[in-house]
Each structure stands twice: as structure tokens, then as C-alpha cells.
TrEMBL record:
Domain of life: Eukaryota
Protein's name according to its UniProt entry: Uncharacterized protein
Coiled-coil regions, chain positions: none
Organism expressing this protein natively: Leptocylindrus danicus
Lineage summary: Eukaryota, Sar, Stramenopiles, Ochrophyta, Bacillariophyta
Alphabetized InterPro entries for the sequence: Kelch-typ_b-propeller, Kelch_1
UniProt keyword terms in alphabetical order: Kelch repeat, Repeat
SUPFAM superfamilies, sorted: Kelch motif
């Protein structure tokens, strides 16, 4: 891996390689740490979590997820990392949450409109995480990370007009959910 400094526009290789080469994983950053979660290696789909310290550039193996998964979605909310769906032999509906401070995983049950893969998860400024699209779906779901840890049905948030997988999404001005790119139901690339 490498680190790119956006201010100096210089890239430098990481001092230490990640313990295992991965793809189809998710990455989340919190404070001075980068968490690389799940994905696939040459030996198959993994449940591992590796943490890179940005002070020492050393890797640490953290507690593994309950279920190995790749092509899933992850989002950071406060001191928790949430993972949604993915693939492990078949498509997954499961949701898990990782506590950064306790290094523990917790099963949060299944997504109501799962299974999902090749989708995205977007944290909002409140307690919500939006789960957007995925293979064969145009659904937009809302997970409430507050004390109830429940899926919400929002009257103000409707499904996308078409299926999107491999898309990117972001919330802008706490008002707009912008979904860009990906593939539609005909596997045509979209703008």
C-alpha cells in the first residue's frame, strides 16, 4: 500500500505491508487508525480486521467479524464500525457492529430488504446510516444507530428510480442523497 499526501501531492509506500493481501474489503478511519475489514484473499473470503496505526505504521490484527464477507458496505458512526450484507458463498443479509474501544463484534440481525452486495453505506450527521442500492436492488434503507439499533421506515426517503450496484453515494448539505455511477439492471455503466 501507499499513503498519498493531498497537501504536498506526494505518495510514499507504507513502511509495512498489510499482513495479508486483500481485495473487495472495506476501509474505515478513526483518529490515528485505519481499519481494513473483511474482503477476499488468495485463500478465499475472510472475516479478519487489520488496524494500521498512523503514528507507528504498524499493523495489528483485531477481533474478527462473526461472518466472513466481501463486497459488503461499512460505515463509521461514533466509536462503532457497522458492516452490512456482502457475499460469503451466497448473498448476505446480516449486519454486525464493531466497538473500536472494546475490540468486540456484535450481531445486529438481518437487513429488512436483504440480502445485499455491491451496495454502499453512508453515515449522516444524526444517528442514521443509509444503505443504498446493491446487486439487483434499488432500495434505500435507513439504520438507526441510536439506543434502539433498529431499521427505520422513512416516509421522506423513497427507493431509487432504478437498480444500482457498484455505485458511490454521499449526503450533501444534510438534504440530498447523491448516487453516482455503478451498473443498472441491464449491467450498463451509468453516469
Amino acid at each position: 500500500g501507499f499513503i498519498y499526501n493531498v497537501r504536498t501531492q506526494q505518495s510514499t509506500p507504507l513502511l509495512n505491508d498489510m499482513p495479508v493481501a486483500l481485495y473487495d474489503c472495506c476501509v474505515v478511519a478513526k483518529n490515528n487508525y485505519v481499519y481494513v475489514i473483511g474482503g477476499s484473499s488468495r485463500s478465499g473470503i475472510v472475516n479478519t480486521v487489520y488496524r494500521l496505526c498512523f503514528e507507528t505504521f504498524e499493523w495489528t490484527t483485531m477481533a474478527p467479524m462473526g461472518i466472513a464477507r466481501c463486497v459488503f458496505a461499512a460505515a463509521l458512526k461514533d466509536e462503532y464500525i457497522y458492516v452490512f450484507g456482502g457475499i460469503n458463498g451466497g448473498r448476505l443479509s446480516s449486519t454486525e457492529r464493531y466497538c473500536i474501544y472494546n475490540n468486540t463484534w456484535e450481531d445486529l440481525g438481518d437487513m429488512p430488504k436483504g440480502p445485499r452486495c455491491y451496495h454502499c453505506a453512508i453515515s449522516t450527521t444524526g444517528n442514521e446510516i443509509y444503505i443504498v442500492g446493491g446487486c439487483g436492488t434499488r432500495f434505500v434503507d435507513v439504520f438507526d444507530t441510536g439506543p434502539s439499533l433498529t431499521w427505520k421506515t422513512q416516509t421522506y426517503l423513497c427507493d431509487m428510480p432504478e437498480e444500482r450496484d457498484y455505485a458511490a453515494a454521499v449526503v450533501v448539505k444534510e438534504k440530498y442523497l447523491v448516487v453516482i455511477g455503478g451498473f443498472d439492471e441491464d449491467d450498463a455503466a451509468t453516469a
